[in-house]
Amino acid sequence: MQRTFAIYSPFLHNGGSPVTTRPLILNFHGCNSHWPVIDYQLDVSKMNEAAADRGYFTLTPAGTAAVNGTNGPWGWNALGCCERCYNSNVDDFALAAAMLDWAEANLCVDVTRVYVVGFSNGGFMANSLGCRLATRLAGVATMAASIGRSYLAECSQAAALPFVSFHSLEDPYVPYNGNFEWLPQLTVDDMYRQRAGCSANATGQVVFQSNTTQCQRYDCPQAPTVACTVKWLNHCWLGGRSGGFQQPGDCLPRPGDLDATTFLLDFFADNSRETAA
Question: How far is CA 4 from each of CA 59, 61, 92, rounded to the nearest angstrom?
Answer without folding.
Answer: 10, 6, 12
